[in-house]
Fold this sequence. Notes:
Radius of gyration: 34 Å
Number of helices: 4
Mean pLDDT: 80
Keywords: Signal
Oligomer: single chain
Order of helices and strands: HHHH
Protein name: DUF4148 domain-containing protein
Amino acid sequence: MMFARLALVLICVLAAGAAFAQEAPSSGGAFIGRLFDATGLRTPPPPAQDFVRASRSEEMRYRAFDPTSAKDSKRKSAADLRAMGAELEAAAAENRRRAGRVAAPDSPDKPAR
Length: 113
């Protein structure tokens, strides 16, 4: 009984701590920013040169670095799925047949039958 009360109190304290942490202001980021501005460590970037502005278009279009995957939106019919399954089974059987001919390095030349 005592353990259950202790567990309940700890859960409430943890939940309240998380709720107060969300409402608290940032701890020191603004102070560090003001300090960097005062010491000259953070300065605004210089304006872009004319050739840079001339080479850029007016509206910047975002171009993703990673390729987007093409999704096949067509639903396959049951017959197509059975045909695909048969192709996979045939490929697996062919791979098993080929693997049976290859001798492992430490095995005898002819497998025992």
